[in-house]
Amino acid sequence: ETRFTLGELRKKYQSSKPITAVTAYDYPSAKQVDSAGIDVVLVGDSAAMVVHGHETTLPITLNDMITHTKAVKRAVQRAMVVSDLPFGSYEESTDYAVRSALMLIKEGLADAVKLEGAIEPRLRVVRAIKNAGIPVMGHVGLTPQSVNVLGGFKPQGQKAVDAMQLVEHAISLEDAGCFAIVIECVPEAVASAITRVINIPTIGIGAGQHTSGQILVYHDLLGLTEHPHHSNVAPKFCKQYAQLGMVARSALCSFKAEVENKIFPGAAFSPYTMQQDELQHFA
Ligand code: KIV
Ligand code: NA
């Protein structure tokens, strides 16, 4: 199957076909997402929370993101792989930001990068990374790396003035050269307005029905919600398409019970034998 390139993304957007995106952080999750035919695999810095167990996305490092991206790339055959620039890897200077993005591409082998925010100096950073030859995805609304200034993980743009600002942010990101924009946790009307006024795809999460595409976090979608922030329930906007956490828990309890009751491995799972004459010498 042919790779899902920027060209394919544009074609899908222009023909108004919904774009699908899911996060992945390692080989098995990426294999699942790619073989399901999802268009975009996001190596999200949500890994900090869903994989590493942190309370926020802030602690994950560029090296962590490179390691996750490498594993994901080994698994993916078709999807576009986008990697998050983590907190601390693109704020202090444009040069530093370009170097960080280059590392995700050269070492991680990502196809594109994503960063959060839409006011200067961020727009300059978007332009510089794009000028270095790297496609950039934007991210507006709830931008989790700003959790401490936003005052928590909460919906954005619910007041008209804030909503208008979000539309401006999205326009600025398009002008700066982003090829798509994630819109997170905003009212449907706001995401819808952004989608109407800009000419690049919007990928929504908790942003209603009228974006160009949808993204969910792998662990939330599959009901593997054993991470601190969500305290074992998926966020309100997330539909759980399976309860894999429950399936895993029950399998692990069965293993424990069978070992303790000497049922496992039993004869059925003790495959290695010795020839009778060898056994005689040994026993
Ligand atoms: O890190 C992440 O998973 C994300 C998505 C929620 C868009 O940025
Ligand atoms: Na992210």
TrEMBL record:
Ordered alphabetically, the record's keywords are: Methyltransferase, Pantothenate biosynthesis, Transferase
Supply one GO CC term from the record: mitochondrion
Pfam families, per this entry? Pantoate_transf
Does the keyword Cell inner membrane feature in the UniProt annotation?
no
Q: What is its EC number?
A: 2.1.2.11
Q: Which reaction does it catalyse?
A: (6R)-5,10-methylene-5,6,7,8-tetrahydrofolate + 3-methyl-2-oxobutanoate + H2O = 2-dehydropantoate + (6S)-5,6,7,8-tetrahydrofolate
Q: Name one GO biological process term.
A: methylation
Transmembrane portions of the chain: none
State any single GO MF term.
magnesium ion binding
Recorded hits in InterPro entries, A to Z, give: Pantoate_hydroxy_MeTrfase (IPR003700), Pyrv/PenolPyrv_kinase-like_dom (IPR015813), Pyrv_kinase-like_dom_sf (IPR040442)
Q: In which pathway does it act?
A: Cofactor biosynthesis; (R)-pantothenate biosynthesis; (R)-pantoate from 3-methyl-2-oxobutanoate: step 1/2
**Cross-referenced PANTHER family:** 3-METHYL-2-OXOBUTANOATE HYDROXYMETHYLTRANSFERASE
- Primary role: Catalyzes the reversible reaction in which hydroxymethyl group from 5,10-methylenetetrahydrofolate is transferred onto alpha-ketoisovalerate to form ketopantoate.
Q: Which family does it belong to?
A: Belongs to the PanB family.
* The protein's name: 3-methyl-2-oxobutanoate hydroxymethyltransferase
